[in-house]
Amino acid sequence: MEQSLFYQLLGWTASITMVLGYLPQAIRTIRTRNTDGIALPTFLMMGIGGACFMLQGIFHKPEILWALFVTNLITTVCCIIIFCIKVYNDFFKKK
């Protein structure tokens, strides 16, 4: 197998497993709006990190690293949504 193809397969395998591991918890949190066990700084840092990895994937030369970009696009969007729910729950919701 060509080395480039091997690295692409490795990247997509990592991407798929990362999304499949993260997405169920993100969907559950978004559906239930329960953010009691979530640390606000954690999701802030995860969102920033994901955005940086997205930029790395898009600006990589000579070719875009699609696996890196797509994975971090999905996780960053989920982080932003969960972060917003957490901020709303902690600061604006009347308990």
Task: Please describe what this structure looks like.
By secondary structure, the protein is mainly α. The chain is about 80% helix and about 0% strand. The longest helix is centred in the first third of the chain and has 30 residues. The N and C termini lie far apart (about 60 Å). The model has no long low-confidence stretch (mean pLDDT about 90).
Uncertain ranges:
none
- Sequence of secondary-structure elements: HHH
Number of helices: 3
Q: State the helical fraction.
A: over 70%
> What would you call the shape?
elongated
Secondary structure tally: strands: 0
- Our measurement of the CA-to-CA distance between the termini, rounded to an integer number of angstroms, reads 58 Å
Mean pLDDT: 90
Outline the biggest β-sheet: none
The amount of beta strand, in percent, is under 5%
Class computed from helices, strands and strand pairing: mainly alpha
Radius of gyration: 16 Å
Features of the shown structure:
95 residues; elongated
Question: What is this structure, in a nutshell?
Answer:
Helix content is 81%, strand content 0%.
Question: What does the secondary structure layout of this molecule look like, with pairings?
Answer:
Blueprint: H1 3-32, H2 40-59, H3 66-92
Helix pairs in contact: 1-3, 2-3
